[in-house]
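Quarterly update from the structural biology core.
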Amino acid sequence: MSGSHAILILKKCVRRCIGVRVKSSKKLVAFVTAVPARIRVRGEIVMMVEVNLLCVHKKLRSKRLAPDMIKEVTRRVHLENIWQAAYTAGVVLPTPIITCQYWHRSLNPKMLIDVGFSRLGARMPMSRTIKLYKLPEQPVTPGFRKMEIHDQFVVVPDFSEDDVEHWLLPKADVIGSCVVESPGTHEITDFCSFYTLPSSILGSHTHSILKATYSYYNVSTKTPLLQLMNDALIVAKKIDFDVFNALDVMHNESYLKELKFGPGDGKLHYYFYNYILKHVLRPSELGLVLL
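Predicted structure, tokenized:
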């Protein structure tokens, strides 16, 4: 997530954002935030916080700073009468409510192979690989366009207007959101979104940034989800993303293989704090994506 979007979060929940600075230089060396969210669990709306952006300078990671920061953000959240939380981690902790798989779809295969993100398949020369992942120049769905502020009440009725404006309206280098507007009735029928999370490339003389985007929330009512996400890939390619990533949550599994996504090495574990589910969820039962 870009720094600009993180700053917008700070304005909304400054009491739940904790940073640690070096006294002499004022350098920020650790940070964590907790963003309020209404989470629907088995039909019940639970007021939680989404704990995110936990980071500690590598030289301080043996000082047990992270547990102290989590204790402090928990204390502050409790003062606001919020007693549950949702969070994710790449490592297994006691006890995940679900474990999800990352999938990757190459948009710029030559660059991804050059930097070691992916590799050529057996008997697959570069020219054939580029052809395999080639996308049309324009979306194929009639009425597929960038989301605008007046679209929001139709697309995500469970979000407040402030939530939609903050999390889902398009912002350059932060989030891309598109809708399908019926050419005849002008009704908004479908919605897709993806957020930006670039990575630094080390050891390459030709590339410095891997521009990655991740599937966020998608709503398909008239347009088949596979077609909707194919259009999302086309838009992401047009704005120069190198790879489109997705978790196998919600209904994502229905399009991953067909749209040439490949399973990655990474897994993401979801956790609840102070809330117990009777059974571990299947990925298709999870409709929560944490940035």
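The mean pLDDT is 90.
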